[in-house]
Amino acid sequence: MAAPDFPALKPRVRERPLSPHLQVYSWQVQMVTSILHRITGVILAFGGLAMVYALVALASGPERWETFAAGAGSVFGKIILFGFSWALAYHLINGVRHLVQDAGHGFEIPDFIRSSWISIIGSVVLLAVVWVIVLMHWGQP
User: Fold this and answer.
1) Domain boundaries, position 73
2) Do the domain assignments include residue 8?
3) Assigned domain for 65 exists
4) pLDDT digits (tens, 9 = 90+) for 72-96
5) What are phi and psi of 82, to 5 degrees?
6) Which among 81, 98, 20, 8 is positioned nearest to 46, based on CA atoms?
7) Nearest 5°: phi and psi at 106?
8) CB-based contacts of 6: which residues, under 8 Å, 6+ apart?
9) Residue 56 domain-assigned?
10) Are 88 and 37 a contacting pair, CB within 8 Å?
11) Alpha-carbon 84 to chain mean position
């Protein structure tokens, strides 16, 4: 004889995500700026550690500084510096956007989208300006 089936005691299983997920939301520029702001914050934290290392190398004498400067001047070092400077530019501009929003401005959807694009495009423009100046003076006394 088979055991009795008690449907009221069986747990109900629903096939649904536990929270909103990328399957539910489509990518929007506001999502990208939020994620980039967090990522660039982490990059800046590690970059701050690298700057402390640079200052320690500078204080430790010419040999350590030359080693650091050679690493920073290599192709890989320039790529790291380029990425760090973009993270700094983006985090700065997007941080100003957040301050404006904290003051109660720019919460309408068109304003929010516009300010998001300004953060992204503005960081690229600022990066280009800074790196043109850096490359014009790289290695000059």
Assistant:
1) 29-137
2) no
3) yes
4) 989 999 999 999 999 999 999 999 9
5) -65, -50
6) 81
7) 80, 30
8) none
9) yes
10) no
11) 10
